[in-house]
Amino acid sequence: MTPQQTVEAFIGHWNACDIDAMLSLCAEDIVYHNVPMEPVIGTAQMRAMVAAFLGDIDRCDWQTHAIAANGNTVLTERTDIFHFKDGRRAAIRVMGTFDIGTNGRITGWRDYFDSAEFQREFAGG
Question: Which pLDDT does position 9 carry in this prediction?
């Protein structure tokens, strides 16, 4: 797969809430950073964080508005929509950067978003 195809597949796995498939595209020592939160390092920490986050989520609908690749770096402009099991819905605008290693796996993932928008959306406001 090309770096862009890897990221597109990764987003597809998020939309399916398939943690195993997500992590199969990640390097063991991935650095996942939701800026401005603290980074998560390694697939074990990432699995724990994603599993906890998806615990209240019924389904995801990440919509990619723009995607660009330059070598092994892929940039995405997205709206990440989460449908909660209690019927709530949250949407957040995200700019994501993915670094793809020589083995074709994601070695770095940084998402940038407005933390105030995140708090409003996920607090049910």
Answer: 98
- Give the residue from 81, 85, 89, 82 showing the smallest Cα distance to 56: 85
DSSP per residue over the chain, as a string?
A: --HHHHHHHHHHHHHTT-HHHHHHTEEEEEEEEEETS--EESHHHHHHHHHHHHTTEEEEEEEEEEEEEETTEEEEEEEEEEEETTS-EEEEEEEEEEEE-TTSSEEEEEEE--HHHHHHHHTT-
What pTM was estimated for this model as a whole? 0.92
**DSSP β-ladder status, 89-100 and 106-112:** antiparallel
Residue with the larger pLDDT of the pair 71 and 116: 71
